[in-house]
Design brief:
The chain is built from 35 helices and 17 strands. The chain is mainly alpha-helical and about 800 residues long. It has a three-stranded antiparallel sheet. Strands 6-8-7 form a three-stranded antiparallel sheet, sandwiched between helices. Strands 9-11-10 form a three-stranded antiparallel sheet. β7 and β8 form a beta hairpin. This is E3 UFM1-protein ligase 1 homolog.
Length: about 800
Amino acid sequence: MDDELLELQRQFEFAQQAKSSIRLSERNVVELVQKLHELRIIDFELLHTVSGKEYITPEQLRHEISGEVNKLGRVSLIDLADTIGVDLYHVEKQAQHVVSEDPGLMLIQGEIISQSYWDTVAEEINERLQECSQIALAELAAQLHVGSELVASVLEPRLGTLVKGRLEGGQLYTPAYIARVSAMVRGASRGITVPTNLSLLWSTLQQLLQEMEGATGIAVEGSFFQSLFNGLVKEGEVLGTLRAGIHWTPTVFAIAQKECVDSFYSQNSFISYDSLQKLGISQPIQYLQPRYPEGIPLVTAFVHPSMIEMLDAAIEDAIERGSWLDSVSLLPTSFGAQDASKILSLCPSVQSALKVNKALIVGDSYLFSSSFVKDVYDRVEKEMETLSHAASSTVVMGDDLHMVNEAKSGHDLSTSSDAAETVTESGNRKRGTEKGSKKKKGKSSGMKAVSADADSDNEDYIPTKSKKNQKKGKDASSSQVADSRKVAKKDSIKAQEENVPSEEWLMQKLAALLPDFEEQGVDDPQTILIYLADYLRPKLINYWKERRKTLFTENVEKMKRLLDNAQRKLDESFLNMQLYEKALDLFEDDQSTSVILHRHLLRTVATSIADMLFHNLDIHNKLKNGTQVEDSQNSESISLGPGERTAIAKSLPESQSKRALAVVEALEGKRVETFMTALRDLAEESGLLLKKLDKKLERTLLHSYRKDLTSQVSAETDPVSLLPKVVSLLYIQVHCRALQAPGRAISVAVTRLKDKLDDSAYKILTDFQTATVTLLALISAATGDEQECSSDRIRSKKEILESQMAALKALVLGSAQA
């Protein structure tokens, strides 16, 4: 065997020393390896080294990585790449395989660390810990160049074995140090006798440890103290209750607190929440209800049922005697009005009395028997009847204004007051429903209801009264009117103050009728009287309004008929006014003629509309204020002067008065548009609806107007009156406009028809117009000395005109028939 080995060695040495006949370069070798790999003769992966002169298999790379880790315990992947000479990518990839196959290894932040390395580190940490008593994980992590979480995760399984210590709040402590701090926590906790926030206690212990260990000591976290404290509580070494983790209530305090609450509650049958707050009980009701299930929680106190029984007996006695009771006076001084109100509602006698209307709770704490309240009400009612009889003997109906104002202003204290307001406004509301009016509901006006401003308009009644006297033909002097106005005003104010009881008046009456409040030792009788007056006053107001309501019933139907008639007349006249207004647009280029036409329309049609509306508003205002108004003449024939219109406008409520005065001012102006705007504002404020002229209505009205004019022209025998009617009819035929022109504007109106008529028709019209002007000039120029001569000339001219009337009528009548 030895000989064979020696022979083989010689042959191998000979082969090594022999020179090859074929020499390959490195490039040839690389190409050869690639070819072998392509032919799958080499069927495993090869990795290039960094130098490019060597190949290495993945298995060999993993083997070398494992070797380095076993040798060093902690190796950086970058260092492995330099040591092995392989690219970092391949090292990282194979390192993951190595770590996944070996559970004792971990790959952290580009480093492979073995468990043996951590065992060695743990032994070193333990040696240092025993020397220092405590070490911060942050310090260890900085030394090891890893995260604190990793250090904690590595040390936790080795605590108690390789590391003799305890990990709390990022700190490592020795058992001796923990026992020392636990003793401090136990002593401090046992010394607490009142509820304490543990955060403050831990801060104190931290300062104490800092002083004991000096500048080299490490600050201990509060969580470490809390953990030790929780352990002591769990073991029963510290007794108490822990809330929200930091609020500590010692058992000794809870026992003393319970004894104090039990003692006070048993002696007084109640306990206030303020007292419990002072004892440190933040939720008194939740604390008391489980302990005293029979107790009753109030707003500021917790009471025993015996207190309700005591109060119930006193209430029952007061109801039987027909008297009253202030429950606050029978309850402890710490009880408030809300407590008294709640405890009253819990008394059985109160509950039964309220069901059968035998008692009444006024305010929060006052209880009156129904017989007592009825007696007081009857006595005050008699006082009001005396006042009402005295007032009605001197005042006609002027005080009704104040009553309606109160009802409208929001003193709707019962169903009766609402009924009174409904009766007052029923006429207008029904009319508004029938007409489909879209007027604003929020506005107060004379046509809707009496506004609160009517009180300040009492003086505006002066012109109305003066106007009324003028219409009736009375020759009273202005001084007499002023004197009568002052007397009526004083009586009205007196009635307003006395008939609707104010709080002051009612308080005075109650104080006079009930002197026994002071006799019974009530400190402040006014307090009781205020509550009683607040309860009685709505009933007294309703009683008074019910009695006064009959005074308005008669006027309601009259007001309804008046509004309906006003709306009907206003619809017809306002549509005609809009129709006539459209004809004015034809003369806008002639300023002087336009002014004449505008003024003529204002003084005729507009004045008639305004007089009719003002007359109806005046009557409605008087009816609304309770004044008896006799059936007046037909409002269509009413003719008012400027002074009368101004007087009526000032007598209306303030909101209407301003708009009515604007209408009066517009009548004296030069533009119809101003009057139309002012009239619309007044009608809207008064609750009336003005219809707008549309195309269909315009055609209907023009047809009716044309038909009427045609019949008038056909029947007309006066040549002077014929010309304006013919001109108006021509304007309807030519321009489809209803022209209302005075005599001064006829010549201009005729001239504007020149381009619209043929020459013969226009000549007939101009000749007749010239002859009419001549006739009127002769009539106006006639004097006494030349009366006979002038009469002949006038008669002659008139005969000429009469002879031309047939031709002039043919101009329009023929066209109309055609």
